Amino acid sequence: MNPSAHARVVGPVRVPTPSFPVSSTYSTGSLLSVTSLTPESVSHILTRATALEHEDPLERAKRLAKRRIALLFYESSTRTRTSFELAAKGLGADTTLVSSLSSSIEKGETLKDTGLTLRALGAEAIILRHNSSGAPWLLERETKLPVLNAGDGMHEHPSQALLDLRTMLAHLRGGAETVTADTLAGVTVAITGDILHSRVARSNALLLPKLGARVVLCGPKELLPDLATEAGPGVEIERDFHKALEQAQVVMMLRIQAERLAGLQLDLEEYKAKYQLTEALLAAHAPKALVMHPGPIIRGLELTGEVADGPQSAILEQVRHGVAIRMALVERALTAGVKA
Amino acid sequence: MSASTILIRGGHLIDPAAGVESRKDLVLRDGRVSEVTDPGKTSLEKVKNGKSKAGNGTNGGGSNGAETFEVIDATGLTVAPGLIDIHVHLREPGQGHKETIATGTAAAAAGGFTAVAAMPNTVPTNDSPEITRWMQAPERGASVRVFPIGAATRGLKGEVLNDFPALKAAGAVAVTDDGHPILKDGTMREVLIQATRAGLSVVQHAEDTRMTGGCSMNYGPTAFRLGLRGMPPAAEYGLVERDIRLVTELSANGKGRGGHSPHLHVAHTSTAQAVAAVRQARRNGLRVTCEVAPHHFLLTEEHVAAYDTHAKMNPPLRSEADRDAMIQGILDGVVDAIATDHAPHAAFEKEVEFERAPNGITGLETALGLSLKWLHGEWKLPLGRVLSLLSAQPAALLGFRGRGTLTVGSFADVVIFDPKAEWAFRAKDSKSKSKNTPFDGWTMRGKVRWTISEGRVVFQGS
């Protein structure tokens, strides 16, 4: 037990690299995280979204006619579920919805077994919403099917970030479909609210800087830890809401996720006083900014009803972009081919 | 393999505790080391005068007329004290679907280990002399020696202390509350006092569980990015520092307690600050020791990136700076032992969402191969010191008399391995009942050819 005299300073040590890649292993059609996207792949998705949106519905419905797509939802959802379903049906696919409250999941069936069952029923891709971060990786690993992440825990919501991007491009870049690493140069997106628990914030903060945008995160420390800036490049923190607004061409507001606070005590009145987006604040600090929100909105909490319904709001427009983006993602899932 | 006498011939003996690193022949008789001589000088060969079959250079039986013996040709191989792992979970009693004492010790033997210290988080908890004896009973079918570590408090609840003298009398070598660390200062203080009186070490899994609820990896930017709640490093080092304060106080008063100071052993150290705290405690002359697991000197939190549940354990994989501090601590001698925290789980238990998966990975069959490949091969820690961290030092740490060395009279616990051989570890070939390892397919260095436990060959590899 004697400390020996072999003291030596360790410099940077060479160690094995992770043996499992971050991006999708089994299927090029999967979309688990925006970290696997490049400007080229984003351009392809945007281009297909527009083409499919404009295509004759009867022609479009032949594209994936009678192909089978499962929607597996462990959490409630209005926008994401409906728009994925409409997207898949718009391409002619048969969809089936399995939700945790009306299936054998209630009886204790695991995610693995549920996925294998869906595959046995002929599902060629699974759209998964799950309350546990990383669940899409498990599903993909076990089923070897393309998986579209429709929101996993506090982790990511890639299709939301893509539809947010399409909304921004429509307003700020004339609806550009081909994007590069500097398409959004000069654009500051201020994301305000419950960043800690937000998969929308993570996907946007990881995607938008790839296209040149600057992302400014705003919120109290409880909901926005300092280390958020280390999660990726091009991300900054501005705790003063007014200052964040002044820099922003896009103001993205987030809901307080009461279901994920896990005992965290938050004074909502104090929160509203500091971070609620009102018409007055918008007029004073960001009169031209685009106001966005992934929904569901809580009127009177993170923003006022007047702002949500006001002229700068693109909230419902985002929902419309969601169907187009998700058509492109569903098509990609079934046509991208499977890696050897 | 039942010969009670074995001649190990032609090998390179490394016995760090005895300061031996040279070619030696060994004779094992009746479970003990009976001779250690220069090559060809054992009594078995001197008497035979060329009559013995042992002279033909192959492994097999030998006889010198007076005695039959088995011959192991260790030419080109390293002969060392059997490895000792002071931190394993054998899952018996109660969780035989994960591992049994028989399968866990078979994995130990395959990994070159001849003694393991088994944690008390069994079902029921190892609270009693009865369970402690049950774990050591011949009926368990253990390949190697099992030293139970008893629970410090009833049911690992941190309230009522168990009967330490009775646990010790039944064979327990230390006490711990394992994954349910003792948070109350008063309870930990009392555990240290009573364990010292009973002549037992106190092993602490240092985690302030008030800071880690709902967490499944290390706290930091990676956890933030992955949307997982993180365990702050302070949850570990804060408790290590608290424990060291208690040991400091009790050691100062030690003269009034029969002259013995408490021995605190920090299990699976994973943060730079915890190693620093142990280093300082040692400078202050305290009996504070620590161990590091191979995954903590090799892997970082980045390995969680694809939510692989084989990268989930407690303490979690930490930052690169922490990982480097583990290597530094091993190289400069603050770390006393490499211990695996072998924690088998059935495949179905790990094939779940990351946050729901149980903590832990297996480690008995990869510890030597990874240590030789990285600590010795890459970071140039002398072979003798690597082996010392895996045998002599852990033996001394928990007071395993006659183990961790191969001097005459010691237990015939021996590992014989090819120090140069590189090979790929395959989880599916593991002797453990569970295959939950992040090292599947990794290159190992050093292939175990024989493991001998108290004179019995318990593993033979090719």
From TrEMBL, chain B:
Signal peptide range in chain numbering: none
Coiled coil spans: none
Domain Amidohydrolase-related: 286-458
Entry keyword annotation includes Zinc-finger: no
UniProt GO MF annotations: dihydroorotase activity
Role description: Catalyzes the reversible cyclization of carbamoyl aspartate to dihydroorotate.
Protein name: Dihydroorotase
Species of the source: Acidicapsa dinghuensis
Originating gene: pyrC
